[in-house]
Structure prediction request, 331 residues.
Amino acid sequence: MTHTTHLGRLIRGGTALLAGLLLSANAFAQGTPLKELKLDYAHYSPTSLVLKHHGWVEEEFKGTEVKWVLSQGSNRALEYLNSGAIDVGSTAGLAAVLARANGNPIKAVYIYSRPEWTALVVPKDSPIKSIKDLKGKKVAATKGTDPYLFLLRGLHTVGLDRKDIEHVNLQHPDGRAALVKGDVDAWAGLDPHMAAAELENGAKLVYRNVAFNTYGFLNASENFYSKNPDALRRVIKVYERARLWAIANPDATAKILADEAKIPLAVAQLQLKQRTDFSNPQPGTEHVEALKAAAPILLEEELVRKGTDLNKVITDLVDTRFAQPVIAAKP
Prediction:
């Protein structure tokens, strides 16, 4: 074997090795495509409905099986996150704090809306005129959700607590049905069901407090957050696309909500045009402070263990930086 031949083999071998290393590095950089992505959609999260309607998640995640799961309330979304039924889910902020404080490993990474989605609702002919009148009454609310926590915070404003009412634990649509049938005296409602009760059944809102409506948070399980950060950023990217589209197309967004929730268009328009703000998707100080202001009700009503450091829970829950580069970039 000549020196030239040996040198040529070394060069070819080195070139092949380098090419192989480059291919491996490129594959590593791109990441292995997800086999499956599990997301929830909810009538209280219009951007999730826009995403599902347009197929933008499937477009972004070609080659990945996308599964959609309906969340009827924050409690369901949080159960699904805890069990692994979904990777990313939409909840109200205070409900997410309650879940995290009680051991559900989630991270809040994005704000899908700032709604006024809950108030205390009574039938049109009800003698109840204020929250004080709820003492001794049957009140429907979905435990573990913002409407339930809104109810408790409202009661505290007039010196009452949950022992002063008869709480009936029903999912949001069932709460509306019970109110209309007269099975309960009041209901801590949630849009779009609350808006529907107003327009279709003449229901009245006897207590409103926008400050007690915590923000709509998009949460990921910590497992998904830590193992698939790039995929989570891409989920936020398509949520941003849906948010901007919803702002630019309010009537079309209302139509999507009406069709998905099977409600009249006027109900969807009331929810979206009068009680939903899509303007600030970046988690930040205002969201953290709103949760800290709301959190004491969890200790006062013994919904978390005595001595729980809720400020730490909130700090661990809300990631104020993860979504920043995605939101700053054009979707």
Q: What stands out?
A: Residues 2-11, 13-30 have pLDDT under 50 and may be disordered. Residues 3-30 form the longest helix (28 residues). The two ends are 60 Å apart (CA to CA).
